[in-house]
Amino acid sequence: MNTTPAIRLTGAGCRFGHHQALSGVDLIVHEGERVALLGASGAGKSTLLSLLNGSIPATDGVVEVFGQDLAGLSSGRLRALQRTIGTVSQRLDLIEQVRVLHNVNAGRLGSWSLLRAVGSLVWPRPDDQIRSALHRVGMEWALHERTERLSGGERQRVAIARLLVQSPGLILADEPVSSLDPTRATETLDLLRAPAEKATLMVSLHQPELARKHCTRAIGLREGSLVFDVPIAELTDALLGDLYALT
């Protein structure tokens, strides 16, 4: 049985100039856990997710994903690891000027040869996997729509569909339901649990009620420091009150 954690942070920190965005974070997350990241804007949630997908380096401590220390990886090995990590960022990272088909198809490019990837960009084909992913997020009608014509919530669902075709082992979602109504938010969080059978999910949320419904564990960040890490059943109103209290 593999007991290597999906995520291990040891004294992890990140500075931007003189600003300490994260400081001394110790954290272990095992395969299959669904972890809610809670905290006010600027608490360090987005920075933590960026450390985990390797888009920014830690300036202190160690960040390990699936047993690999990100700081010690060559660029090629880091890209290989990143293919197992699915990210939904606040920016969504969609190409606005192309059709939805192109953006969803991009979820598979990292696992293909260069020739096949280039060919799929020039002549994308809407196969069953793409159609199924769009159907699951309620966007099958938008297959050939230009992405720039979609609403914010619709673009968010396209980003989720791209994640579904990637089938990652680790899913990092930064406020993935911020533009969605309550019903669609619930559906989206259900979908984020679906891409891989044992996928680990870490999701940044501002709605504690969604964390309680969809996650197994809650982590609170405040001013770059981890202030609590509890099973979801122990996420009390008192903890939340302290977390969001004005300093």
What does this structure look like?
This protein has helices at residues 45-52, 75-82, 100-105, 114-122, 128-136, 152-166, 182-192, 208-214, 237-244; strands at 7-16, 19-29, 34-38, 60-65, 68-69, 85-88, 170-174, 200-204, 217-222, 225-231. By secondary structure, it is an alpha/beta fold. It has a single domain, classed as P-loop containing nucleotide triphosphate hydrolases (Rossmann fold, 3-Layer(aba) Sandwich). Strands 6-7-8-3-9-10 form a 6-stranded mixed beta sheet, sandwiched between helices. It has a 4-stranded antiparallel beta sheet with strand order 2-1-4-5, covered by helices on one side. Helix 7 (182-192) links the parallel strand 7 (170-174) and strand 8 (200-204). Helix 5 (128-136) crosses helix 6. The radius of gyration is 18 Å and the shape is globular. The termini are far apart.
